[in-house]
Amino acid sequence: MKELTSQSLRSLYLDFFKERGHAVIPSASLIPENDPTVLFTTAGMHPLVPYLLGEKHPAGNRLTDVQKCVRTGDIDEVGDASHCTFFEMLGNWSLGDYFKEQMIPWSFEFLTSPDYLGIPVEDIAVTCFAGDDDCPRDDESANKWIECGIDPKHVFFLPKSGNWWGPAGTTGPCGPDTEMHIIRNHAEADKLGPYDFDKAPAGTFLEIWNDVFMQYNKTAEGKFEPLKQRNVDTGMGLERTLCILNGKDSVYETDIFEGAIAKIEQLTGLGYGQSEEVTRAFRVVLDHVRTATFMLGDTKGIVPSNTDQGYILRRIIRRAVRFGRGIGLPQGALNEVSKTIIAKYADVYPELAANAAKIEEELNREEAKFSKTLAQGLKEFEKVAASKSAGDKIDGVTTFHLYDTYGFPVEITQEMAREKGLGVDVEGYNAAFAEHQAKSRAGSEQKFACGLADHKEETTKLHTATHLLHAALKRVCGDDVNQKGSNITEERLRFDFNFPRKLTPEEVRAVEDLVNGEIAKDEPVVMKEMSLDEAKAEGFTGLFESKYGEKVKTYTIGDFSKEICGGPHVERTGVLGTFKIAKQENVSAGVKRIKAVLVK
Questions:
Q1: Region of poorest pLDDT, from 42-46, 115-119, 156-160
Q2: For residue range 163-207, what is the model confidence (pLDDT) as tens digits?
């Protein structure tokens, strides 16, 4: 493989497609145009949706660019080796021009040719769409990869949850995709059959590129209609690709962050990598300052506020301040780190240099505002936490007090609580917020609370599956297992629970079997209103008991699950599909996390 810098990789990619008739277009703003469904540009395709739907692009029907993107769905995981809230996406598009027969050979050439990335063919595996009622199996892509030279045993098939690209928002262009992976463990990879890719042990494969073949438009009713023009949309994450090519263990160890790391080391006297705790704090500051710098310096630059994009920006800056103080970063340090980011990217994104004064002013203002109350707020939090036992919840009124008095976004309180094995009554916080603020402002703030991201069909299914997961964990791991938090989107559920270790493979299978058994029974999901005392007396459990008034909603699923809950649910379990645990993670001492999906 070639060892490349960030700038040489950008140039190599753009030149490759420019030589193949693509117009190089500039990155669009991080703030989407006229799209209320998302707060930020989350993928390279997002700014091009009108053209993917048939409008003519002024630069033609072959395009390539490096797009600025922000994704904050897993912000609490930033600090590990790979998660970033800001990233650059290398991409190319065919707007009704070429399709699979041309894109796949180009992908193969760019990956394997010594003139480009030079990755050995034997180290590449690909996945293709396995097919369902909406679309047949993508044998065309699989056969084209084999024709190019990929070993047939390294061609795998995955269902829609693995090889299907949904729209940037709730509707829009979508279709099957084919993903390219570096094989990190040949011994494990070679054991797998064509449908066993997701059974590989963690670390066997690492995704590097994704070719999306847009053939459908997802309507507001959830239907998939054929697009008038077939499109190609590809995405290669710059940071991850640099990490792979240069043999690094983390995206933070590439040339992108060299100057910023040196600045933090200078300001703190600590060394990146000297301990797990210090390294995590470095990474949070590095990522969040970079993201804040790009948000503030964007052509449609935003400022910290209590609503929408401004709320996310405020949360990111304040999280950076909290972690920075933990490693001794003095006040004003975020701006010093930001200057290294601006210097690194100025030639690529000149708007950062043009808006440097604004970036400095807003960063310093927000850091100073939070710094005034940070130490007091931390003392208040520690006092509250000391009065709790592992598994307890911090009530909503106290959580709101930390926000209203000390400026702690609810997500920061949640994160600190998780670190101590505690939960937070978020819905109680929302109620306290609504009581003290105007309804319009409260509504904006509540968008970003944890739990359900929305009430769409797939999210509702995953929410119902969370009830089954909770009940199954109690049966497999003990009745003292209780929910410590959740975050549910239309793509996956995330469930935190008290348990001293990760589940064994046998326990994972047992939990999956129990959940899928209840799904197969097609049990009705029965809702009944009663008083909280009655619900407790009848054995119903609930995560947010302190938020409920005189009457509560209870949900019963057969003789398997009984929970107090205020969210949306399906009418019968049979519509859920197949439940699969995708990942396990540590959250804090005594608290574990499961991520799971429903496969149709």
A1: 42-46
A2: 998 775 677 778 899 999 999 999 999 999 999 999 999 889 989
- Token look-up 């999280």 returns 319
pTM, entire model: 0.68
pLDDT band with cut points at 50, 70 and 90 for residue 490: confident
Are the beta carbons of 23 and 62 closer than 8 angstroms? yes
Report which secondary-structure segment, H or E, holds 293.
helix 276-297
Long-range contacts of 441-446 (CB under 8 A, 24+ apart): 441/306, 441/307, 444/306, 444/307, 444/308, 444/311, 445/306, 445/307, 445/311
- Residues ≥6 apart with Cβ < 8 Å to 566: 427, 544, 552, 553
Alpha-carbon distances of 109 from 56, 78, 150, 272, 568, rounded to whole Å:
29, 33, 12, 37, 48
Q: How far apart (Å, rounded) are the C-alpha atoms in residues 85 and 564?
A: 34
How crowded is residue 389: how many other Cβ atoms within 10 Å of its Cβ? 7
CA distances from 389 to 386, 484, 522 (A): 8, 13, 39
* Residue 315, C-beta contacts closer than 8 angstroms, at least 6 positions apart: 75, 409, 411, 412, 448
How far apart are the C-alpha atoms of 412 and 286, rounded to whole Å?
18
Domains, the chain? 6-245 (3.30.930.10), 255-372 (no CATH), 387-446 (no CATH), 452-599 (3.30.980.10)
Instruction: Provide the 3-class DSSP secondary structure of residue 150.
Output: coil
**How remote is the C-alpha of 172 from its chain's centroid?**
20
Cα–Cα distance measured from residue 570 to residue 578, given in angstroms and rounded to the nearest whole number? 15
Q: What is the pLDDT of residues 125-173, one digit of tens each?
A: 999 999 988 778 999 999 999 999 999 999 999 998 889 987 756 777 7
